[in-house]
Amino acid sequence: MSGAIARFRDSDLWWSFKRSPVTILSAVVALICVGGALLAPFIAPHDPFDLASLNLGDAFKPPAWDEMGDAIYPLGTDDQGRDVLSAILYGARISLLVGFCATAFATIFGVSLGLLAGYIGGAVDSVLMRIADIQLTFPSILVALLVDGVVRAAVPREVHDQIALFVVVFAIGISEWPKFARTVRGSTLVERNKEYVLAARVIGVPSLRIMASHVLPNVLGPVLVIATLNLGLAILAEATLSFLGVGVPPTQPSLGTLIRIGNDFLFSGEWWIAIFPGLSLVAMVLSVNLLGDWLRDALNPKLR
């Protein structure tokens, strides 16, 4: 373990990271967002989803630094008396969970199809890439809305809330797979004609094993970059769906749901209900995107 850490600290990746103040700051912000979400049950001042503890008399309290604010609600309360800070911490858990799961699903699905298309070629390649081309002509959020609507229409209404999280993950993931598939397919077309792949074929190694053990490790560099950038897009897509009212159920509000709730009161003076969740979403997505930009440059040999 110590040897692996030592090799990493001597790598070009670590050298590039420690020489970029923007990247370091982005990593710190991302760690704060992820840590706050994971530790929400322990560090949140209140449990915003405990209905027994809510008091409508505490509704619409401004942030603590306002003369009408209360120190026990640092960022104020919403229309139901929920602590905004606690709601953000818990809501970030949902947003990050959906983002990570949707990105993982899109990565696995897209990489698998890209490997298959690039290695086998022929009709399989043509069919898969034409499907990807057609899907890429539509904005991802429209594809996610379509998939979400079709799934919700196909299942009974009484189970919508129980499967809502899985539906959102599937809808976002299935809308992003073509990016991974096209990238991996292009890299696989290059790798499949190299000597080590030809040698493996000659000695009778099965095609599935060649793809998994030989080709896949050599095409993962671009995939890692796309996955990092796609994480921010997935979080934004989930927030958009929840803002439109077709994301996670109101009983499990994400940052998008909190922004939608706050939007109803934005012009009546209760600005903090929407602004603070919105700033949290911006910080989370921006930090992830900046890390993705750094990773893309750090893994590009032409920029070294």
Summarize this structure as a short list of keywords or feature phrases.
single chain, 304 residues, mainly alpha, MetI-like fold, 13 helices
What report would you give on this structure?
With 304 residues, the chain is mainly alpha-helical. It has one domain (2-303): MetI-like fold (Orthogonal Bundle). It is built from 13 helices and no strands. Helix 6 packs across helix 8. The longest helix is centred in the middle third of the chain and has 37 residues, at 84-120. The radius of gyration is 23 Å and the shape is globular. The chain starts with a helix and ends in a 6-residue tail after the last helix. The relative contact order is 0.14. The mean pLDDT is 86. It is found in: Cell membrane. Its main location: membrane. Residues 92-292 form the ABC transmembrane type-1 domain. This is ABC transporter permease. It is a multi-pass membrane protein.
